[in-house]
């Protein structure tokens, strides 16, 4: 499958997705000369004309804009979105976005490869909050099995 990563997808995401999904042709808008800055309305038609099968974006407002929805529908391309939680910036935000895409994209691409028409896919976010990502144990209070006592 030939997948285009939209301009709003962080560029480091493209390198990671390429490493993990070697069987697919993964390109970021910035990899294509003259494509940076292309408005979404033109991007989907341009991507279709260049043989892409799907576009990955984190522009969740795109589906609430009439002209963009019409352009997506007319292109026939699959649209894959993930949400990047704005309250988690920096490394935590990027890590959450990468985790969400890496965990969900292989399943999405497998489904899309056998789809009999255009599909709209939303990848479920990985929760980056400390309480859900980190567990800390004090071995003096809650000793693991075989922890030396003494």
From TrEMBL:
The residue ranges of the VapC45 PIN like domain are 1-78
Q: Which Pfam families match?
A: PIN_10
| Protein known as | VapC45 PIN like domain-containing protein
Q: Which organism is it from?
A: Streptomyces nitrosporeus
């Amino acid at each position: 499958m030939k997948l285009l990563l939209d301009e709003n997808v962080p560029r480091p995401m493209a390198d990671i997705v390429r490493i993990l999904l070697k069987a697919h042709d993964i390109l970021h808008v910035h990899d294509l000369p003259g494509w940076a800055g292309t408005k979404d309305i033109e991007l989907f038609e341009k991507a279709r004309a260049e043989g892409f099968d799907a576009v990955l974006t984190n522009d969740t407002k795109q589906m609430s804009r009439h002209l963009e929805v019409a352009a997506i529908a007319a292109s026939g391309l699959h649209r894959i979105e993930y949400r990047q939680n704005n309250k988690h910036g920096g490394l935590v935000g990027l890590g959450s976005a990468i985790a969400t895409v890496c965990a969900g994209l292989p399943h999405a691409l497998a489904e899309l490869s056998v789809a009999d028409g255009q599909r709209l896919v939303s990848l479920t976010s990985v929760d980056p909050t400390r309480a859900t990502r980190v567990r800390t144990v004090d071995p003096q209070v809650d000793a693991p099995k075989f922890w030396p006592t003494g």
